[in-house]
Amino acid sequence: MITYMNTAPITPVGPRALWPPLDFMLGALACCGACVFTNPLEVVKTRLQLQGELQARGSYQRHYRGVLQALWVVGSTDGLRGLQKGLTAALLYQGLMNGVRLGFYSYTEATGLTDAPGGSLISGAAAGALGAFIASPAYLVKTHLQAQTVAAIAVGHQHNHQDVSSAFMSIYRREGVMGLWRGVNGAVPRVMVGSAAQLATFSSAKDWVTCAQWFGPHSCLTALIAAMISGVAVTITMTPFDVISTRLYNQPVDEFKRGRLYCGFVDCLMKVCATEGIMGLYKGMTPVFVRLAPHTVLSMLIWDVLRQRALLYRH
């Protein structure tokens, strides 16, 4: 009897759906785990992006000159706790935003929406917009707290909140419910671009590595390589939006609850380019990469491993 061997290339198994609340929890848990390790870099990134706000290059004192020097300045001035400023708000933001974002994206994968031309980009952008809108108040408070420091090394407006809960209450009393979503017009495009780049490149890179059969079908190295490629793509596309978002969130408001420095996303973009040049949009590029690359690798890797384990347990 003659037998024939199947020589067709192995293709990645299509996505399977998890229970939506479980998918939300796994996405939130993965990104919160990554946030604990990368929050000091987020503090440094925020300070660098606010340094020299609307001032020409060379006309202001530079307290922060790079990632390592900035980490040293913050640590020596504010102590080790200063390097984890805003951690509670950052964890709340990561849990809400990424729980919604990753959960929504995995649902679109399971329904086959990402298989259409441009489906991964559109689904990633939509998932990012939804997550950014829901979690915007947490990002607002996080930015305020991470910018706060002693006068000697202060940059940007100082809101002087006592802690996370008092920050929420202070903003609510001064500006009402809508005040908690101030800056969302900068956050939504920021996360839409970053999410589309991250999820689309992660999915494509993972499929490519899987088809190449470099590792076993359930090896975490597949997700690791895909996450590294994704981290580079996110950093390049997201930095200008990140700068604008930080500026919009941290600006002071007047008695009419309007921003004193910027009217919105486009106004901030134009003012930064006019006063600080195009490179002003890339302030903090190094800490953005140093933070986003490991954060993307950790969060995508943890998320993928947790989902694979949950799917294996389910089936």
Automatic annotation (TrEMBL):
The keyword Mitochondrion applies. It comes from the Eukaryota. Keywords: Membrane, Mitochondrion, Mitochondrion inner membrane, Repeat, Transmembrane, Transmembrane helix, Transport. It is a multi-pass membrane protein. GO terms for cellular component: mitochondrial inner membrane. The keyword Chloroplast does not apply. It is found in: Mitochondrion inner membrane. This is Solute carrier family 25 member 34.
